[in-house]
Specification:
Blueprint (H helix, E strand, L loop, with lengths): L17 H12 L12 H14 L5 E6 L3 E2 L9 H10 L6 E5 L3 H5 L6
Parallel strand pairs: 1-3
Antiparallel strand pairs: 1-2
Helix pairs in contact: 1-2
Length: 115
């Protein structure tokens, strides 16, 4: 395939974000309690997290939160990062979930806020 016809994205073994998937898989299996991921776009990271969550044993659910919508599974904790963190802190130890708090950087910049 030296003629330039090879493109990695069309190769059957190509998996987008393979390095990130492998790294997150390792960290989740190692039971890292907290991961801080900075990304320009959320959707690719969410897709990678869902892929990894389905791949690890036991499989995990991915629960997303943001300041405007709250938790994606029940809409709670709208407008309050502290309420979102409270849910994470109170989750049973055996709950097989990955909690993702999106757009948390404005809250972290203003640590004195009650949000």
């Amino acid at each position: 395939m030296l003629d330039g016809s090879f493109h990695p994205a069309t190769h059957p073994s190509f998996i987008p974000h393979r390095e990130l998937i492998d790294e997150l898989d390792l960290m989740i299996r190692a039971r890292y309690p907290l991961l801080y991921i900075v990304a320009i776009e959320e959707e690719p990271v969410e897709n990678v997290l869902r892929h990894v969550a389905a791949k690890v044993q036991p499989a995990r659910s991915v629960l997303l939160w943001d300041l405007v919508r709250g938790w994606d599974d029940n809409g709670t904790a709208k407008g309050s990062a502290m309420a979102a963190l409270d849910r994470v802190g109170k989750a049973p130890a055996d709950e097989e979930a990955i909690f993702v708090l999106c757009d948390l950087h404005p809250v972290l910049k203003n640590a004195t806020s009650d949000k």
